[in-house]
Write a structure and sequence with these properties.
Strand content of chain A: 25-35%
Oligomer: heterodimer
CATH superfamily of the largest domain in chain A: P-loop containing nucleotide triphosphate hydrolases
Helix content of chain A: 25-40%
Largest sheet of chain B: 2 strands, antiparallel
CATH class of the largest domain in chain A: Alpha Beta
Radius of gyration of chain B: 20 Å
Distance between the termini of chain A: 33 Å
Number of domains of chain B: 1
Chain lengths: 308, 258
């Protein structure tokens, strides 16, 4: 069984009158790329700040590499690299000197680490430039370079592709995948750009208004999104009753506008249309669809709103 | 902790802040000596163009030493929140206590080195430009500086604690003035009515530097002229360091970094 790198049990975080996280259970195993998804104010950054020790939990238990006492957490944070919100840089020092500062701080031997790390994030050519003069995208790369110093076992990344240009996004994605595959670095990453997360994450956690709506693997997500049939009929209630009677184990959902969504249809589309027409129910439309991560998230959020 | 100290020294030495702060403060002393020198040339029988008058300015206002501590700390340390570098240190597993302790040590060391340069420029400039009549003013200044070093370090520790606690320089400055100058002043006036407060207020650097040090052209009456006075300065400064350090640790210990 893979080691649990992050384990959050019933973690709650309150800011005066606002509850940013409510009884959140999150597990990140070694080698995972955990995509944290949620709207602004969902609690993503709050969770990452708890991991980095910037803030403290109001309740529950947070473990990092199996440790939960404050002292052990501090010790284990040395095994992590993080960018939370904007990367922290000294604007009057050059790129190279900023990185050297953090190399010394982390106690990493060998100055060659600087060159290697700057080359890996594409900033070697800009090493003499003052950090205050860097563009937002370059600052993000610089933040990643600092996080990568010393080959951490866990990377905590909050919106790391914010401000990157398209080629920067691709480079960042490839770099994260490479680090995960070649060095088995565990990554927890939050992003608004779901299509980006979809390309790298192996596990997803969906947060909404402080609640963890769902945590599932990429395989399970693909299964859930694998496809559905949307059938628009004249009498959805009767059709639903027929589905339950005639097609055992069918998973369906009655949607607005006379629509019924059949998840993972087991039979060809004709079988479902035939069922309706055979019982005198008019078919207004029939469509085979595949759910994207965005749609899955929106759907989950809608259902979350009802249950929260 | 050691790595953190090393990294901070690296940053300070490779940054410009400490050089600027030192240059500005040293420049002010040069400017003062130049002004006295210029007046000596322009005004016949100008009585103040002496080394004694120049050096006595600081000997008689040792609280400037405490303020210099604040200035150096603000120059070196006030942007940690704004730059987001404080959260980096915490994220890398440096405890808040180690961070604060490290800042106090680094700022105190940098302030001390900066003070050495400023004093050298100040004294050198005075001797170079102004008339000298004996070594007493210099001895008084050096002794006063030495015995008030613990109080200056306490000022650095207080400023570091405030920089850990507050994001804005103005807030840091106001709190520093309130604690370092406001509280002793209030205690002084309360002490006129309440004896126990008077005893405490006499041990506050702001008060004893104001009321127990008298320097003018006719002579000196400094607290540090007696062994008891020297001990008072050293003990009061050391208590200040301990109080502000413990206060800083308590204030920063559970501070959430937004």
């Amino acid at each position: 069984m893979k080691e649990h790198v992050i384990e959050a049990r019933s973690v709650t975080k309150k800011y005066k009158d606002v509850t940013a996280l409510r009884d959140v259970d999150i597990t990140v195993k070694r080698g995972d790329i955990y995509g944290l998804i949620g709207d602004n104010g969902a609690g993503k950054t709050t969770f990452l700040k708890l991991l980095t020790g910037q803030i403290y939990t109001s309740g529950g238990e947070l473990k990092l590499f199996g440790a939960y006492s404050e002292k052990e957490l501090e010790q284990n944070r040395k095994r992590t690299g993080a960018i939370v919100e904007e990367p922290g840089l000294y604007p009057k020092l050059s790129v190279e000197k900023n990185l050297e500062y953090y190399r010394i701080q982390k106690g990493i031997p060998g100055k060659n680490q600087i060159e290697e790390t700057l080359k890996s994030v594409g900033l070697w050519d800009k090493r003499k430039r003052k950090c205050g003069a860097l563009s937002m995208g370059m600052k993000q790369r610089m933040g990643l370079a600092i996080a990568l110093l010393g080959e951490p076992e866990l990377l905590i990344l909050d919106e790391p592709i914010n401000g990157l240009d398209p080629s920067g996004i691709i480079e960042m994605r490839n770099l994260l995948l490479k680090l995960n595959r070649e060095k088995n670095i565990t990554i927890i990453i939050s992003s608004h750009i779901l299509s980006e997360l979809e390309q790298i994450a192996t596990v997803y956690g969906f947060l909404s208004r402080g609640w963890l709506l769902r945590e599932l693997t990429a395989e399970k997500l693909h299964e859930d999104c694998a496809g559905y049939l949307e059938i628009k009929v004249s009498d959805p209630e009767r059709y639903a009753a027929l589905l339950e009677k005639e097609m055992e184990g069918v998973q369906y959902q009655v949607m607005p506008d006379f629509q019924i969504r059949i998840q993972n249809p087991q039979f060809p589309a004709e079988a479902y249309s035939g069922l309706a027409s055979g019982h005198g129910i008019g078919i207004v439309g029939l469509e085979q669809k595949q759910m994207s991560l965005e749609e899955y998230y929106m759907d989950l959020k809608e259902r979350g709103k009802l249950s929260c | 902790m050691l790595n953190y100290l090393k990294s901070e020294f690296y940053r300070i030495l490779h940054g410009r802040e400490i050089y600027w702060a030192t240059a500005v403060l040293a420049g002010l002393t040069v400017l003062m000596n130049l002004t006295l020198f210029a007046f000596d040339r322009l005004t016949p029988d100008f009585p103040y163009s002496t080394v004694a008058f120049s050096l006595n300015m600081l000997t008689g206002s040792m609280s400037m030493l405490l303020m210099a501590g604040l200035i150096i700390v603000v120059f070196l340390f006030s942007d940690e929140y704004k730059n987001g570098t404080l959260k980096n240190a915490i994220s890398f597993g440096i405890s808040r206590n180690a961070f604060f302790t490290g800042k106090c040590i680094v700022c105190a060391a940098a302030a001390f080195l900066s003070m050495l340069v400023i004093m050298a420029v100040y004294i050198g400039g005075a001797f170079l430009l102004l008339k000298s009549e004996g070594s007493l003013p210099l001895r008084q200044l050096l002794k006063g500086t030495a015995v008030n070093l613990p109080a200056a370090v306490a000022s650095v520790v207080l400023a570091s604690a405030l920089c850990c606690r507050f994001k804005k320089e103005a807030t840091v400055g106001l709190w520093w003035i309130g604690i370092m100058g406001g509280v002793p002043t209030v205690c002084f006036f309360l002490g006129l009515k309440i004896e126990s407060i008077e005893r405490i207020s006499e041990w506050m650097p702001w008060n004893y530097l104001k009321y127990e040090v008298s320097v003018n052209m006719s002579g000196y009456s400094c607290l540090w002229d007696t062994p008891e006075g020297v001990a008072k300065c050293l003990i009061a400064g050391t208590i200040g360091i301990l109080v502000f350090y413990v206060g800083g640790i308590l204030a920063f210990h559970k501070k959430e970094i937004e």
